[in-house]
Design goal:
The structure holds 2 protein chains of 2 kinds. The longest helix of chain A is centred in the last third of the chain and has 14 residues, at about 195-210. Chain A is of the alpha/beta class. The relative contact order of chain A is 0.15. Chain A contains 5 helices and 15 strands. Chain A has 3 domains: about 5-95, Beta Barrel (Elongation Factor Tu (Ef-tu), domain 3); about 100-215, 3-Layer(aba) Sandwich (Rossmann fold); about 215-255, Dihydroorotate dehydrogenase, electron transfer subunit (Dihydroorotate dehydrogenase B (pyrk subunit), domain 3). Chain A has helices at about 75-85, 120-130, 150-155, 180-185, 195-210; strands at about 5-15, 20-25, 40, 55-60, 65-75, 90-95, 110-115, 135-140, 160-165, 170, 190, 210-215, 230-235, 235-240, 245-250. Chain B has one domain (about 5-300): TIM Barrel (Alpha-Beta Barrel), CATH 3.20.20. The longest helix of chain B has 15 residues, at about 275-290. The two termini of chain B are about 25 Å apart. Classes of the chains: A alpha/beta, B alpha/beta.
Chain lengths: ~260, ~300
């Protein structure tokens, strides 16, 4: 898959709440082949303080509309600037970057587990699994019900289980406390979210000998394997999150 | 047709735009975005005698108009380079130059001896200015005697073109330039990163695992232009300007201040096509301003 640098037109900037928004992008050329887990390096225009690109997961893909979506959390000046972009404006991105989640084998029961902005690559993954005849369970964790985003979108693609830290919706507690993890046997877990959450999911999977892939969100310089800034410590030494990842089997990581 | 070429002794470069070590991988990382062979040259990732894992994450912090890095020369060592990378990159139709690093003078010498045997590598860039390694690196480039000794030792064993990359973390850059010129350097490239630091106030910890790191990007450009100007006036060998070059205008500043060529570094992270755009921009500038040879503008501000 050749990487591209391209200015795509913003079809919609949809604010999901005061923290999250999605940008739907389209171009004149056909959006290239992409797989769930891959990401784009997004240029933030207009400020010397937001000098580098921001790595953002591909959130969804719509072939009929020739569009892709990015789900972005306002976390600093760069993402704040991106949140103010309007439909009709352009966004310069380098994509598709990185590796992707692997497919489960026939008959295997997959679980997608995501917390906060970590749910971003999982919608695309859920759709991809659906396209391959698999209905995943989807376990999503949020701080409280006001933070819950895109519940309906996920619900169309699999059975959704919710955990909120304050119990305002779904089960009370962390995602890893959810009873579904005790009652259902999964063969394959795909996970993305804050580090403590991914580590907790990883230890759950290790205990039960479940294959688990996590998508890491390390700070990046280039996104194309040139600067070696985004490394993660693995059994094969320091590997680039941008080119060897962002998806890693937990067996590879020295967590 | 505008003449864009420059030379280091009898080594010809088809144009003055090179890419800086550590920002351009081994070239192939950029193949999807541009024809790498159109560049005047590429300086590949800093190479050491033995494989190195580099420093722990986090190794990078964004700063206003720039970034700090503390990669620490992660690379797979010269033998891996020779076997796995050299056959691939020697097919580029441009000058492929290896940036070499060591903890001891003997490391540099052993590396230079090995690279001397690689037919398609016409030059090395002697890195005595990496701020992110515990031993060697910048220690050679910030002590006048060490800078002399390492240059002299490598010159003794290396018969092709020797470029010495200077550290800006010194009081008098001209002293260092004159010293390495006297010891046989064929060219000087400058500047490497400036030693810097950033604190993550949310975590209340240093932003980098190594605490300090190397600052690059437009934030350092005026310092780099000043040092290039000082050095270019003082030495007879060609000077290659580096430091925060993001676009054509930045590159022209360096050329006008006395650099015979430039290296594009951090800019390639933000725009992987930056180096080619700069090359096209320089050519256009020369045409528009009625120059027929890039040499006419090198050091123009001193004329």
């Amino acid at each position: 898959m050749a990487k591209r640098i391209e200015s795509l037109k913003i079809l919609e900037n949809k604010h999901l709440n005061n923290e999250y928004f999605t940008l739907e992008l389209s171009g004149n050329d056909t959006i290239p082949e992409m797989k769930p887990g891959q990401f784009a390096q997004v240029k933030v225009e207009g400020s010397p303080e937001t000098f580098l690109r921001r790595p953002i997961s591909i959130h969804d893909l719509n072939r009929e509309k020739n569009s892709l979506k990015l789900l972005i959390q306002v976390a600093g000046k760069g993402t704040e600037t991106l949140s103010r972009l309007k439909a009709g404006e352009y966004l310069n991105i380098i994509y598709p970057l990185g590796n992707s989640f692997s497919l489960p084998q026939k008959g295997q029961k997959p679980l997608l587990a995501g917390g906060g902005c970590g749910i971003a690559p999982l919608l695309f993954m859920a759709r991809y699994l659906n396209d391959h005849g698999l209905k995943p369970d989807i376990l999503l964790g949020f701080r409280n019900m006001d933070r819950i985003i895109e519940y309906e979108e996920y619900n169309e693609l699999g059975e959704v289980f919710l955990a909120t830290e304050d119990g305002s919706m779904g089960e009370k507690g962390l995602l890893t406390d959810h009873p579904v993890l005790k009652s259902v046997h999964y063969d394959m877990v795909y996970c993305c979210g804050p580090d403590p959450m991914m580590k907790a999911v990883a230890s759950y999977c290790i205990e039960r000998q479940i294959t688990c892939e996590v998508s890491l969100e390390n700070l990046m310089g280039c996104g194309i394997g040139a600067c070696l800034c985004c490394v993660v410590d693995t059994v094969r030494g320091n590997l680039c999150t941008c080119t060897d990842g962002p998806v890693f089997n937990i067996k590879e990581l020295k967590w | 047709m505008v003449k864009l070429g420059f030379s280091i002794g009898d080594l010809q470069f088809k144009n003055p735009v090179l890419t800086a070590s550590g920002t351009f991988g081994y070239g192939s990382e950029y193949d999807d975005f541009m024809e790498v062979s159109r560049l005047g040259g590429i300086i590949v990732k800093g190479t050491t005698l033995e494989p190195r894992e580099g420093n722990s994450y986090p190794r990078m912090a964004e700063t206003p108009s720039g970034m700090l890095n503390a990669v620490g020369l992660q690379n797979k060592g010269i033998d891996y380079f020779e076997k796995q990378i050299y056959p691939r990159i020697s097919t580029y139709n441009t000058n492929v130059i290896v940036n070499i690093n060591g903890s001891y003078i003997d490391d540099y010498v052993a590396l230079a001896e090995k690279i001397n045997e690689l037919e398609k590598i016409p030059a090395i860039e002697l890195n005595i200015s990496c701020p992110n390694v515990r031993m060697g690196g910048m220690a050679f480039g910030t002590n006048l005697n060490s800078a002399r000794e390492v240059t002299k030792a490598v010159r003794n064993v290396y018969s092709k073109k020797l470029i010495v990359k200077l550290s800006p973390n010194v009081t008098n850059i001209v002293e260092f330039a004159l010293a390495v010129e006297e010891e046989g350097a064929d060219s000087i490239s400058l500047i490497n990163t400036l030693l810097g630091m950033s604190v993550d106030i949310r975590k209340m910890k240093p932003a980098l695992s190594t605490i300090t790191g190397g600052l690059s990007g437009p934030a350092i450009k005026p310092v780099a232009v000043r040092m290039v100007w000082q050095v270019a006036k003082a030495v007879k060998i060609p000077v290659i300007g580096i430091g925060g070059i993001m676009n054509t205008e930045d590159a022209l500043e360096f050329l006008l201040a006395g650099a015979s060529a430039i290296q594009v570094g951090t800019a390639s992270f933000i725009d992987p096509q930056a180096s080619l755009k700069i090359l096209e921009g320089i050519e256009k500038f020369l045409i528009v301003r009625g120059f027929s040879d890039i040499k006419e503008i090198v050091g123009h501000i001193n004329k």
